[in-house]
Recover the amino acids of this structure.
C-alpha cells in the first residue's frame, strides 16, 4: 500500500468484479486430490464452527456414505429435505434448490460439486444449481476432487487411465472465493482405503482399485496442490489490481487457439486453457469457417460446436470467422485482437499432399512472424473412416448418375475418335479424349473424370495407336500420355469439386440471408406489437417447421402473448425453463444446459436495453433437436424480433412520454392561468370594495356608481372564468353528456346574443340567417355556450364599436355558422393553435384578456357533436372568421298529423281563406324540416 | 302593493346570500322570513304562510326537490328556485315538481326582483286577464283569438295562437317545453319538442320584428320559453 500513488488507480474491471461479487454469495470449495481424503468431513467441521458462531447454516446435500465420524458432524445442522424426482419409474433424490431459495440461509452445504443431476431436475449439473444459489446471494460450501476439473480432464485420463465423466467447468472453481485443499499423503490414503474408510461404489470397485496406486495419487496430489497454489497467486493478483498496487504486470497478452474440424479440437482447447492460466492471459478460441464447412458431415460440425462450447465453459471467448484463406483470417484476427500466442494443432494430412499445398500450420508459421506459434501434436489418429462412409452415403445417388454420365462420355469420345480417325484422319486423337475428360471433370468432379481418363487412355491405346490391339505393349510415351490424362482429370475434377462446394455454400448462406431478409422486411412493416409478435411466431414456426411462441412480462408474470399454432399454456417444466431464460438472459429448455427435459427451447429476446421477452420453439417430432445451423438462424431471428418488439414498445413509450409532457404543459398553463385570471378580477373587486368602504362617503354618486360597476364587471368576468374552467374540466374528464334535443339554430344564436348583449350592445351587428334552416339535433345549452364564447372572443379581439357579422347557412349536410370580426386577425400559423387550451394570440399593444379556454371549449363541444370548428381570415385578409359546422341529422319524426292540424286549424273564417293558410304553413314546415 | 306587505321566505344555507337577499327585499318593501334548512323552511311556511318562497336547490338537510313537494303540501305560495347553470335538469325537475320559476346563480338582484314581481302579480287575484293583452305595439285579443302588431293583424294558425295564448296568460313566467306541449298538443306529445321549435320559429317570424333576436318570446335554454312583456325587456342584470 505504501507504493500507492496517484497514477495507480485501481483498474476499473477489477473493481467492477469486486462490486459484482458483493451481491453474490461466496463459494468455498474443499478441494481434494482423490476420494477419501476427507473433504466432506472437513466441510462439516467448518460448518459446525460457523454454526457455533451463530451463522445460519443448513445442509443442502451431504453424502456421508455411512461413515460414522462424518455423520457425527451432521448432528445439530438443519437439513433441507431432498426432492424426489421420478425418472423412468425410479425415484431419485436431488437437492431441493427451490426449498433452499425459500429458506434463504446464510450458508448452505452442497457436497459433490461435480454431481450430475437426474434428468428432469432444473439443471443437468449440480454446479449450475450452486451458481443459482450464489446468484441469489447465498453462500455455498462445496467439495470437489481435482480429477473432476474440466481442464485437467485429459491430463488425468492420461495419468490414471480413467476418463472422468462428471466434470466441473474451470470457471466455477475460478469464481470460488476460497479454496481449501484437503491434503492427505498418498500413503495415509492408501491405508484408509485398506481399512475400508473410503467409499467406493460397487460397480466402480475394480476401476478404482487401479486408480489408487501411489503413483497416481502422488500425481493427483501434485495437481491439486498446484492448482490451489495457482489460485492463491491469482487471488493475490486480483487483490493487487483492485487496490492499485504496482507490480510487475504481465502485459495483457492474449492467447488464441485455432481449432480445425478434426478430433484434436477439444485437446487444443484444453491446452489453450492451461497456457492461458499459466500466463494469466485472456484467451480466445477461433474457428475459421470456409465454404468447405457446409459439406462436412453433421457429426464433425457438432464436434466443432462442442469444442467451442467447451471453450466457453473454460472461460474463453469464442469466435467463428469466415473466409477461404484460413491462415490469413487467423493472422488478421490475431493482429486485431492483440494476440501474442497462437495455439494450433499439427496437421494430420498425408505427407504427400504438402507437395502441392502448404498446410495451414505452415502458412501460419510463414505469415505469423510476430507471433509465438505453439503447435500441438495430435496423439490420436483422426477417425477419417466415419467421415468417408458418411460422405459415401450422402453422395450415392449423385455419384451413380455422374459415373453413368462418365461412361456415356467415354463411349461418345470413342465414337467421335473413331469418326475423326476414319473420316478426317485426325493426327492427334488424344485431344478428343482430353475434351471428354474435361467435360467429365466439370460435370461430375474428380471421380468421374478419373474414370473417363482411364477408359480414354485404354481405348486410345488399344484402338487408335499405330500398334493397335497391343494394350500390354507400352513405352515411355504412353506412360507420359497416361499421366497427362490423369493429371488433367485430377486438376479439373478437384477444381470442379471446389466450385461445387462453393456454390452449395453460397446457396446455403443465400437461403439464410433470404430468410433473415424476408423476416426483417415483414417485421419492419408492422407497427403494432400484436402484429409484430404474430409475424415473429409465424416466421419462426415455418422456419423450423415446428411450433413457436413468444412470452412477455405482464403484471402477473411471464405470459404467452403469441403462439403459432396458438398455445395457451405451458407445462410446469417448460414454464420454469421460460422463466429461467427470462431471468438469466440465457437459452434454456430442450437441448440446452438448463432444464433440457422441457418440451420447448426458450431463447431470451434481448436488446441493449434489457430483456423484452422470451421466444419458445418446439420441433414437430418430440425427440428431434435443433441443428446447430438452425440454432444460429434462430439466434439471428431472435435478435431481430427483440429489436422489433422493442421498437413497438418504444413507439408507445414515446407516445406516452408525449402525453405526459403535454399534460405537464397543460398543468403549468392551468396554474399560471388560474393565478392570473382568478386573481386579476379579485384584485379589482377587493380594491373597489375597500375603496368604497373607506372613502365611500367622500365620493360623488357617479364615482361610486363607477366603482360599483367595476365590481360587477369583474365579478362577472370571474364567473365566466370559473364557468370555463368547469366546462373544460367536464370536457376533459369525459363527464360531458350531451342532452340532445331538436333545436333551431336561430333560437340558439338569439339566446347567445341575449347572453352577450352587454358586449355587443354598442356594436353594429349583422345577423344573416338563411331562411328555412333545418332543425339540428344537439345540446342547446352547450352549443349556446359555443356561440357565446365565439362572439365573446370576437368582441375581445376587435376594436370597440367595430362590426360583428354572424352568418348561418346550409352547406350540404352541414349547418355553418360563421362569426366575423374586424380585428387584427390571427396569423396563419397560429390559426390551428387558437383552439388549443390556454393558447392566446400575442397581440402587440393589446393586453391578453382571454383565458385561453373559450375556443378550446368550443372545439371540445363542437367535436363532441361531430362538428368542426375552424379559423380563417376574413375577406380582404381583414379580421377573423370563426366557423362552426354542425351536422344535420336525419329529419325528426314529424307525424302526418302536423299536416292535418294545419288543415283544420285556422282562425276565424272572416279574415282569410283556409287554402291560403294551409298552403303557406305547409311550405313553411317543409322548408324548416329540410 | 298598496295593502299588506307581502311575506317572502328565503331558504338558503349560506348566511351571506340570505343577508343580501333580505336587505334587497326589505328595501323593496317586502317582509322577509329566513330559513337555513329545508325542514325549517317547511315549518316556517306552515306557521307564517308566506306569499312567496325563494328556495336554494342545494340544501344541507333535504333534497331541493323534496323541499318543493313538502312546501307544496302546506302552502300554495309560488316558489322561485335558485340553481347553478350546469343543473339544467334540476331546473326542469324543480319546475315539474311545482316550482314556478327559477334564477341561475350567480344572478343580478333585478332578475330575481322581476321574477318575484311577476309571480306575486299572477298569484294575487288582483290581476285578472282582460279580454285583451297588450305589450308594446302588440295586442292579443284573447276572446276573438286575433293578434295585431302596430295595428296590423297577424294571421296565426290555431295551434300557434294557442301557444301564444298560453305564454301571454303567464306573461313573464317560464313555461317548460313539456307544459306547453301538454296544453297545446295534448299529454301524448310532451316529448316532441321539435313541434314546439317549429311553431315558436313561425310565431317569431310572424310576431317579432327581428326574429333572430326575439323581444317577446324568449328562449330559456334547455328549459322552455317565456313571454317577456314589453316593459320587462332589457331589465336583466
Amino acid at each position: 500500500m505504501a507504493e500507492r500513488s496517484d497514477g495507480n488507480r485501481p483498474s476499473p474491471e477489477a473493481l467492477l468484479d469486486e462490486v459484482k461479487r458483493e451481491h453474490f454469495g461466496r463459494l468455498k470449495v474443499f478441494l481434494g486430490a482423490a476420494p477419501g481424503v476427507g473433504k466432506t468431513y472437513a466441510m462439516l467441521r467448518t460448518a459446525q464452527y460457523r454454526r457455533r458462531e451463530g451463522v445460519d447454516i443448513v445442509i443442502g446435500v451431504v453424502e456421508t456414505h455411512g461413515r460414522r465420524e462424518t455423520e457425527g458432524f451432521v448432528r445439530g445442522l438443519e437439513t433441507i429435505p431432498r426432492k424426489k424426482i421420478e425418472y423412468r419409474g425410479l425415484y431419485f433424490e436431488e437437492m431441493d434448490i427451490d426449498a433452499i431459495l425459500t429458506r434463504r440461509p446464510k450458508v448452505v452445504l452442497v457436497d459433490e460439486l461435480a454431481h450430475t443431476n437426474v434428468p428432469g431436475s432444473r439443471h443437468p449439473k449440480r454446479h449450475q444449481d450452486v451458481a443459482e444459489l450464489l446468484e441469489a446471494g447465498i453462500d455455498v460450501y462445496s467439495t470437489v476432487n481435482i480429477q473432476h476439473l474440466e481442464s485437467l480432464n485429459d491430463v488425468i485420463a492420461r495419468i490414471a487411465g480413467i476418463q472422468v465423466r462428471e466434470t466441473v467447468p474451470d470457471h466455477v472453481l475460478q469464481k470460488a472465493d476460497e479454496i481449501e485443499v484437503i491434503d492427505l499423503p498418498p500413503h495415509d490414503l492408501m491405508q484408509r482405503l485398506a481399512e475400508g474408510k473410503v467409499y467406493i461404489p460397487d460397480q466402480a470397485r475394480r476401476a478404482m482399485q487401479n486408480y489408487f496406486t501411489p503413483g497416481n495419487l502422488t500425481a493427483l496430489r501434485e495437481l491439486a496442490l498446484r492448482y490451489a497454489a495457482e489460485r492463491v497467486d491469482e487471488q493475490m493478483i486480483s487483490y493487487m489490481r483492485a487496490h492499485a498496487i504496482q507490480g510487475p504486470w504481465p502485459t495483457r497478452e492474449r492467447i488464441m487457439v485455432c481449432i480445425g474440424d478434426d478430433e484434436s479440437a477439444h485437446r487444443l482447447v484444453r491446452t489453450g486453457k492451461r497456457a492461458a492460466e499459466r500466463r494469466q492471459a485472456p484467451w480466445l478460441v477461433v474457428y475459421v469457417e470456409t465454404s468447405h464447412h457446409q459439406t462436412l458431415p453433421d457429426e464433425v460440425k457438432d464436434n466443432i460446436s462442442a469444442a467451442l462450447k467447451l471453450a466457453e465453459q473454460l472461460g474463453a471467448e469464442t469466435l467463428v470467422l469466415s473466409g477461404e484463406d484460413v491462415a490469413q483470417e487467423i493472422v488478421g484476427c490475431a493482429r486485431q485482437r492483440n494476440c501474442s500466442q497462437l495455439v494450433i494443432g499439427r496437421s494430420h494430412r498425408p505427407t504427400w499432399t504438402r507437395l502441392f499445398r502448404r498446410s495451414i500450420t505452415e502458412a501460419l508459421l510463414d505469415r505469423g512472424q510476430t507471433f509465438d506459434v505453439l503447435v500441438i501434436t495430435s496423439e490420436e489418429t483422426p477417425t477419417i473412416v466415419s467421415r468417408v462412409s458418411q460422405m459415401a452415403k450422402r453422395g450415392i445417388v449423385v455419384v451413380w448418375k455422374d459415373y453413368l454420365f462418365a461412361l456415356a462420355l467415354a463411349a461418345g469420345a470413342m465414337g467421335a475418335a473413331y469418326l475423326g480417325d476414319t473420316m478426317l484422319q485426325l493426327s492427334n486423337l488424344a485431344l478428343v479424349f482430353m475434351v471428354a475428360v474435361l467435360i467429365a471433370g466439370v460435370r461430375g468432379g474428380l471421380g468421374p473424370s478419373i474414370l473417363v481418363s482411364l477408359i480414354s487412355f485404354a481405348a486410345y491405346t488399344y484402338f487408335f495407336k499405330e500398334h493397335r490391339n497391343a494394350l500390354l505393349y507400352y513405352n515411355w510415351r504412353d506412360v507420359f500420355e497416361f499421366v497427362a490424362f490423369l493429371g488433367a482429370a485430377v486438376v479439373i475434377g478437384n477444381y470442379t469439386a471446389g466450385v461445387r462446394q462453393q456454390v452449395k455454400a453460397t446457396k446455403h448462406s443465400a437461403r439464410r440471408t433470404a430468410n433473415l431478409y424476408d423476416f426483417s422486411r415483414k417485421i419492419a412493416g408492422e407497427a403494432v406489437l400484436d402484429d409484430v409478435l404474430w409475424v415473429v411466431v409465424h416466421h419462426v414456426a415455418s422456419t423450423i417447421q415446428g411450433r413457436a411462441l413468444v412470452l412477455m412480462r405482464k403484471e402477473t408474470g411471464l405470459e404467452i402473448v403469441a403462439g403459432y399454432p396458438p398455445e395457451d399454456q405451458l407445462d410446469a417444466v417448460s414454464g420454469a425453463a421460460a422463466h429461467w431464460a427470462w431471468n438469466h438472459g440465457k437459452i434454456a429448455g430442450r437441448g440446452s444446459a438448463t432444464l433440457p427435459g422441457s418440451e420447448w427451447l426458450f431463447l431470451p429476446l434481448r436488446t441493449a436495453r434489457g430483456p423484452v421477452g422470451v421466444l419458445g420453439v418446439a420441433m414437430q417430432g418430440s425427440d428431434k433437436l435443433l441443428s446447430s445451423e438452425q440454432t444460429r438462424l434462430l439466434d439471428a431471428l431472435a435478435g431481430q424480433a427483440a429489436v422489433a418488439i422493442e421498437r413497438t414498445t418504444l413507439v408507445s413509450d414515446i407516445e406516452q412520454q408525449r402525453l405526459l409532457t403535454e399534460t405537464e404543459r397543460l398543468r403549468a398553463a392551468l396554474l399560471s392561468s388560474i393565478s392570473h385570471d382568478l386573481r386579476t378580477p379579485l384584485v379589482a373587486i377587493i380594491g373597489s370594495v375597500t375603496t368604497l368602504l373607506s372613502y365611500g362617503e367622500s365620493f360623488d354618486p357617479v364615482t361610486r356608481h363607477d366603482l360599483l360597476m367595476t365590481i360587477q364587471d369583474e365579478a362577472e368576468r370571474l364567473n365566466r372564468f370559473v364557468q370555463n374552467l368547469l366546462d373544460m374540466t367536464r370536457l376533459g374528464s369525459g363527464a360531458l353528456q350531451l342532452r340532445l334535443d331538436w333545436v333551431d339554430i336561430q333560437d340558439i344564436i338569439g339566446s347567445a346574443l341575449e347572453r352577450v348583449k352587454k358586449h355587443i350592445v354598442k356594436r353594429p351587428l349583422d345577423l344573416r340567417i338563411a331562411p328555412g334552416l333545418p332543425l339540428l339535433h344537439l345540446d342547446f345549452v352547450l352549443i349556446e355556450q359555443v356561440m357565446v364564447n365565439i362572439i365573446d372572443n370576437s368582441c375581445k379581439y376587435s376594436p370597440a364599436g367595430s362590426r360583428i357579422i354572424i352568418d348561418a347557412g346550409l352547406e350540404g349536410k352541414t349547418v355553418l355558422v360563421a362569426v366575423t370580426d374586424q380585428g387584427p386577425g390571427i396569423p396563419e400559423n397560429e390559426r390551428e393553435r387558437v383552439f388549443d387550451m390556454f393558447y392566446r394570440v400575442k397581440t402587440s399593444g393589446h393586453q391578453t384578456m382571454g383565458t385561453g379556454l373559450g375556443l378550446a371549449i368550443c372545439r371540445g363541444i363542437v367535436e363532441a357533436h361531430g362538428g368542426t370548428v375552424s379559423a380563417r381570415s376574413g375577406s380582404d385578409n381583414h379580421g377573423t372568421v370563426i366557423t362552426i359546422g354542425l351536422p344535420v341529422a336525419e329529419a325528426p319524426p314529424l307525424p302526418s298529423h302536423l299536416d292535418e292540424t294545419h288543415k283544420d286549424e285556422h282562425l276565424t273564417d272572416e279574415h282569410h281563406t283556409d287554402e291560403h293558410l294551409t298552403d303557406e304553413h305547409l311550405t313553411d314546415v317543409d322548408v324548416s324540416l329540410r | 302593493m298598496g295593502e299588506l306587505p307581502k311575506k317572502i321566505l328565503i331558504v338558503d344555507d349560506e348566511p351571506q346570500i340570505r343577508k343580501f337577499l333580505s336587505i334587497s327585499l326589505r328595501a323593496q318593501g317586502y317582509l322577509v322570513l329566513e330559513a337555513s334548512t329545508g325542514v325549517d323552511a317547511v315549518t316556517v311556511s306552515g306557521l307564517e304562510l308566506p306569499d312567496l318562497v325563494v328556495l336554494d336547490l342545494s340544501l344541507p338537510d333535504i333534497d331541493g326537490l323534496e323541499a318543493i313537494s313538502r312546501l307544496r303540501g302546506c302552502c300554495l305560495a309560488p316558489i322561485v328556485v335558485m340553481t347553478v347553470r350546469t343543473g339544467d335538469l334540476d331546473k326542469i325537475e324543480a319546475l315539474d315538481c311545482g316550482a314556478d320559476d327559477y334564477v341561475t346563480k350567480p344572478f343580478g338582484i333585478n332578475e330575481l326582483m322581476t321574477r318575484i314581481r311577476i309571480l306575486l302579480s299572477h298569484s294575487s287575484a288582483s290581476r285578472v286577464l282582460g279580454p285583451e293583452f297588450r305589450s308594446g305595439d302588440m295586442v292579443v285579443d284573447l276572446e276573438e283569438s286575433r293578434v295585431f302588431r302596430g295595428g296590423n293583424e297577424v294571421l296565426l294558425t290555431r295551434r300557434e295562437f294557442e301557444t301564444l295564448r298560453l305564454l301571454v296568460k303567464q306573461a313573464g313566467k317560464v313555461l317548460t317545453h313539456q307544459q306547453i306541449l301538454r296544453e297545446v298538443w295534448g299529454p301524448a306529445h310532451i316529448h316532441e319538442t321539435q313541434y314546439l321549435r317549429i311553431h315558436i320559429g313561425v310565431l317569431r317570424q310572424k310576431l317579432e320584428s327581428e326574429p333572430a333576436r326575439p323581444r317577446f318570446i324568449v328562449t330559456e335554454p334547455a328549459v322552455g320559453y317565456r313571454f317577456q312583456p314589453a316593459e320587462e325587456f332589457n331589465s336583466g342584470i
Q: What stands out?
A: The interface with chain A takes residues 85-86, 88-89, 106, 144-146, 153, 155-159, 161, 192-195, 197-198, 200-202, 210-214, 218-219, 221-222 of chain B (CB under 8 Å). Confidence is low (pLDDT under 50) at residues 232-237 of chain B.
